[in-house]
Amino acid sequence: MNIPLTPVRFLRYALQQYPGKTAVVCGPERFSYSQFAERAARLAGGLRQIGVKPGDRVAFLSLNCHRLLEAYFGVLEAGAVLLPLNIRLAPDELAFILNHAEASVLFLQNELCGLVDSFHQRLSAVHWFCMLDHHNQAPWLLPQTYDELLSSATPYRRDIAEFDEDSVAELFYTSGTSANPKGVMLTHRNIYLHALHAALSRETSHDSAHLHTIPLFHANGWGAAHTPTLRGFKHVMTSRFDPLEILRLIQDERIESLGLVPAMAIALVNCPEFHKYDLRSLRWVGLGGAASSPSLVREVEEKLGCQCYSGYGLTETAPVLTTSSMKPGLRWEGEQRFTGQASTGYAIPGVELRVVDANDQDVARDGEAVGEILARSDGVMKGYWKQPEETAEALRGGWLHTGDLATWNQDGYILIVDRKKDIIVSGGENISSLEVEKTLLAHPAVLEAAVIAVPDQKWGEVPKALVVVKPGGRVNDSELIEFCRSRLTHYKCPRSVEFLESLPKTGTGKVLKRDLRKKYWQGQNTIGVASPVHQESSM
Amino acid sequence: MNIPLTPVRFLRYALQQYPGKTAVVCGPERFSYSQFAERAARLAGGLRQIGVKPGDRVAFLSLNCHRLLEAYFGVLEAGAVLLPLNIRLAPDELAFILNHAEASVLFLQNELCGLVDSFHQRLSAVHWFCMLDHHNQAPWLLPQTYDELLSSATPYRRDIAEFDEDSVAELFYTSGTSANPKGVMLTHRNIYLHALHAALSRETSHDSAHLHTIPLFHANGWGAAHTPTLRGFKHVMTSRFDPLEILRLIQDERIESLGLVPAMAIALVNCPEFHKYDLRSLRWVGLGGAASSPSLVREVEEKLGCQCYSGYGLTETAPVLTTSSMKPGLRWEGEQRFTGQASTGYAIPGVELRVVDANDQDVARDGEAVGEILARSDGVMKGYWKQPEETAEALRGGWLHTGDLATWNQDGYILIVDRKKDIIVSGGENISSLEVEKTLLAHPAVLEAAVIAVPDQKWGEVPKALVVVKPGGRVNDSELIEFCRSRLTHYKCPRSVEFLESLPKTGTGKVLKRDLRKKYWQGQNTIGVASPVHQESSM
């Protein structure tokens, strides 16, 4: 008997087994699993009522709130495709995505109404704009709010046997550091199996509460819609990161787990009010979104009294690929454990990883040899929306090519050292832009630095540094180059330095090297400008 | 990206992630995951070498040992179908199964050689008989033993992409209390998803050891081949149940989990040497195979210092459907908890259960109304081997009809009260044979009792008791009927009693009511004799 795999089953199961249990806490509102499931079914009914057809894309522009969480189930129940949008994207990017995906509905929060007002006339496919939280008089909006839509709708639930597990359930656009955003298609099966494997990758109690510190619209956060539902956990929503509010919620809602990017973790452990809160319920903190450090892992563990480890994943992998927790059979002690837990980690169940050289041969598992990470897992996307060539390129040979460069060691732990397209090839030598950037950041006057490849007659390409100086800081180009030479092999050092007011960034805060490179490569061939594969390393 | 779901992935993953970790302990032998995986790959190579083709059935007649565990992966790696045989079956039953399944190979342990010798000439399809443990001079055996086959073989591993997740991986014959054994076909997908859901149904640590107290060839035991492998646990094999040996293994191998049938649990907690062992590693005991009692659950928990709960499943469901542990959101205290944990339990993740009346309508969830349990899950079999009509009947309407009768309560916990075909319908009243048997067993002189329906001119059918008296016990038929009348409603009491030396039983110890009924129903229509659906309630 084959039952279609779909995350909708998670909420159905929770409704059957835990109807009265608290499912969602969002500000002053609390919903049981019975209410959560009812609202998701009403959203499905409401979408059908306004005319949404199976396969239609339904976009959400929202901070974390219970309504966005409901969409992860209700939109799929209606047979439609959920398209969560990153609220930090620029208007042009949002308009590009909504038009490329041909979304027919856009749900938005009141505070984002002005943003959408600036580009809604450019949206060719959106038939309905619906307010999530408040009434608003803008003429292009539906008169009903989301809650009114739910109130007037008949709950709708499809027979599970009618779902097609290989159909697209969610569409996420990658943030596009190297090209236009691409739409990553995740199927019902991708999401179902990802959630099961992710749940198996760590020990949790059966009566747990998870705090949604990371936006659900972000790779790092969306997986969190499913696993806690499958397990009957309490979802606790936070719309913005405020250390005091996080500490209060951990205490009041007895939070067991949460995810943080390193900057959030630093803010939390350095919060002066810290000791006033009872954090004993906290069992683990997952660090993602950027490289971590052993000292941060140690500080989080010691101050928050929990386990702290990293994870790695991509938009294309639904997202989790690794955990850096200590695997069965290892006996890490002291610093070794913090170093291990700050690494990129090892493949969670269901995931296979390889680290390969340019000829697709595995590099030595010696913690030194660098290669590209390839992944094969049930969570790997069906492909890019309307981009069959990019899909074939990314999935060539049956493995997702991540574009991330890493070492791996004998225990199977990988450590990301750079993005493939951020490697500068100068005179046949590979230069990690990350390594040079780290060196520049060690200079007391440097606030931000990006190192890119620029064309060179003799070496093909050479590294160039783009630097933002700290307020009051003073340094010139030759001093910075000299500073690098005292710390790095000569060929790795920038040949030139340019000082900027700020670095261009994506909505998720990543430096847009694509934009930085453009001016130096105009009229050249495309080397160094764009790579056909783009993923967001996000966990 | 769809990666075929197959349990072979569990061992591949363990090989990648825990190569040096202890995988299997079997008597004095210990194997790492690297060695376990190597042996499974060599078994696959050896099978191909002797001529086994993809899809062939490969039978094993063996007590629990590392070789039988290897077969759960190696046979599938070769593309063949594993057919584990219950060593307690009669020669006729074994011959029936091997011929019906057309097994081409039979692996057997030395101590079972005499048994096979008695029927091997009746086996039409078996080309190769191979000794698992010792050399034996029987002329019908391959000269090579299993270990010699492995030594001379080239390890063989298929590309995972070549597996067909919907093909049959394992074939298990149900024990046949009501008809000839039926071959239950479990696909690679059935087994993979069952293992993931079963793993999610309980909290375990990541560095655990599981003791295989239940034979792997039994429904109650085979699921245990997969989940511990997926999680990188240590498998500890025991071939026969000996309380002292069990206690020693729990202590020496730091066992965290094990399964017991109630009779084993009683023997264990009453073992006089009990207090001499350090059992602190033990975290949970799963009770299955027969109904449990609150007092036994309490005794196991208090004496073994662990959690103890029941489970329920069928050969047809791969097997686990329920756990009786306390679900998230409940707050059982004291006796309420023991009663709950002794019940049949609630559906584990991935499983949907219903309890329905004769019109397939859900009965009230009041803990009183009785109906048949229907199940829908990823573990439900593909069907019965070469029995399409029985398959269609069992899976009608997209739900497996278990034939087990139960109540369910508001919290979603079910409690099995009887087998459907063991219900006696007398004058329009339903009589649970189980209830009458329990009453008879309460008489101090009764050792065993079976209650069956016999034909009656006036009432259609009436209950008859077949009783085995304890050594030295004295009781006659009218005394027993009077004993029942003092405890049960009149119509439920046996109209006649027959005293037997013993009751006919299956290889798994279930009373063969089919055989008992035969003599009373000859020449009648088939009511009460056979039901087209047969499952073994086994966890």
Question: What would you say this structure looks like, in words?
Answer:
Two copies of one chain form a homodimer. Chain A is of the alpha/beta class and 539 residues long. Among the domains of chain A are: 174 residues, Rossmann fold (3-Layer(aba) Sandwich), CATH 3.40.50; 100 residues, ANL, C-terminal domain (GMP Synthetase, Chain A, domain 3, 2-Layer Sandwich). Chain A is built from 17 helices and 25 strands. In chain A, the strands form six sheets. Chain A has a nine-stranded mixed beta sheet. The first copy, chain A, has a four-stranded parallel beta sheet with strand order 4-3-5-6, sandwiched between helices. In chain A, β19 and β20 form a beta hairpin. In chain A, α2 packs across α6. Chain A is globular, with a radius of gyration of 23 Å. Chains A and B meet through α1, α7 and β15 of A and α1, α7 and β15 of B.
Topology:
The structure is a homodimer of 539-residue chains.
Chain A: H1 8-17, E1 22-26, E2 29-32, H2 33-50, E3 57-61, H3 66-77, E4 81-85, H4 91-101, E5 105-108, H5 113-117, E6 128-131, H6 146-152, E7 168-173, E8 183-187, H7 188-200, E9 209-212, H8 219-222, H9 227-231, E10 234-237, H10 243-252, E11 257-260, H11 262-269, E12 284-287, H12 294-304, E13 307-313, E14 320-323, H13 334-341, E15 346-347, E16 351-356, E17 371-377, E18 383-384, H14 388-394, E19 400-408, E20 414-419, E21 423-426, E22 429-432, H15 433-441, E23 446-456, E24 460-469, H16 477-485, E25 496-499, H17 513-521
Parallel strand pairs in A: 1-10, 3-4, 3-5, 5-6, 9-10, 9-11, 11-12, 12-13, 24-25
Antiparallel strand pairs in A: 1-2, 7-8, 8-18, 13-14, 14-15, 16-17, 17-19, 19-20, 21-22, 23-24
Helix pairs in contact in A: 1-2, 2-3, 2-6, 11-12, 12-13
